[in-house]
Design a protein that fits this description.
NAD(P)-dependent oxidoreductase; single chain; UDP-galactose 4-epimerase, domain 1; NmrA-like; alpha/beta; NAD(P)-bd_dom_sf; two-stranded parallel ribbon
């Protein structure tokens, strides 16, 4: 039995779709906060179990009979460490034999503030005694493409990453890697630094948007505080805006770049290019 937390999230849905290509639905357990959102998974034969990261008892019950667990990191930045502690303790109580965790690219040396809770979680896993693998995911291409419609409308893509290279990949790429790790033996003890094959700058993203849309888009680099303020002015919550601005500054320092091609090696194909992602978006 393979369990996936956050199974109705964007990454989780991709992971389960991949797992269904090689594993029987009856082998899969989707751990979700809201079972109503998982109706489609139930219809496919996936076992849907309700549990919240904040409820260790419910998590322990949801993990009964599970051999392998994929912990997709919580989306609640600032609450991740205690939430992940609950799921790891529940896994130990339930007798889970292997855990894979979606961490952050080069978490141990990353300049991004996001790395702190990932490092805490990695230490919890090391202390748990359960065999585990770290899937240190780089940035999702979708994180930046979410800003593309506004950039196309106004002709300006704003950010604070300077000329820092971003080796992003799509959620589908990272999900394919996670599915492989969950269905094969031999991954315990491994640390995978996962990123796209080809890095790009935000200036290059603006140029790609221009090329494919026919609308002129330029990149405007802002300071961290100005970028965070701009994000807040269009309605982003303060915490999210500050996190995104910090991450751009981290990208400027090389925190979102890796050229090891570990991800494409693991999934057996090239990662999705920026050009193809922009094409899909348009």
């Amino acid at each position: 039995m393979i369990a996936i937390t956050g199974a109705t999230g964007q990454l989780g849905q991709h992971v389960i779709a991949n797992l269904l290509n090689t594993a029987a639905a009856a082998q899969l357990v989707a751990i979700v906060r809201n079972p109503a959102k998982a109706a489609a998974l139930s219809q496919q034969g996936v076992s849907v179990r309700q549990a919240d990261y904040g409820d260790e008892t419910a998590l322990t019950q949801a993990l009964q009979g599970v051999e392998k667990l994929l912990i997709i990191s919580s989306s609640e930045v600032g609450q991740r460490a205690p939430q992940h502690r609950n799921i790891i303790k529940a896994a130990k109580t339930a007798g889970v034999k292997f855990i894979a965790y979606t961490s952050l690219l080069h978490a141990d040396t990353s300049p991004l503030g996001l790395a702190v809770e990932h490092i805490e979680t990695e230490k919890m896993l090391a202390d748990s005694g359960i065999p585990y693998a770290l899937l240190r995911n780089g940035w999702y291409t979708e994180n930046y493409l979410a800003s593309a419609p506004a950039a196309l409308e106004h002709g300006v893509f704003i950010g604070a990453a300077g000329e820092g290279k971003i080796a992003s990949a799509t959620r589908a790429d990272y999900a394919a890697a996670a599915a492989r790790v969950m269905t094969e033996d031999g991954h315990a003890g491994k640390v995978y630094e996962l990123a796209g094959d080809n890095g790009w700058t935000l200036s290059e993203l603006a140029a790609e948007l221009t090329k494919q849309s026919g609308k002129n888009v330029v990149y405007q680099n802002l300071g961290q505080a100005d970028f965070a303020a701009a994000l807040k002015s269009v309605g982003l919550p303060a915490g999210l805006a500050d996190m995104l601005a910090d991450s751009d500054i981290g990208a400027a320092k090389g925190g979102l770049f890796d050229d090891s091609h570990t991800l494409s090696t693991l999934i057996g194909r090239p990662t999705t290019s920026l050009a193809d992602s922009v094409k899909d978006l348009l």
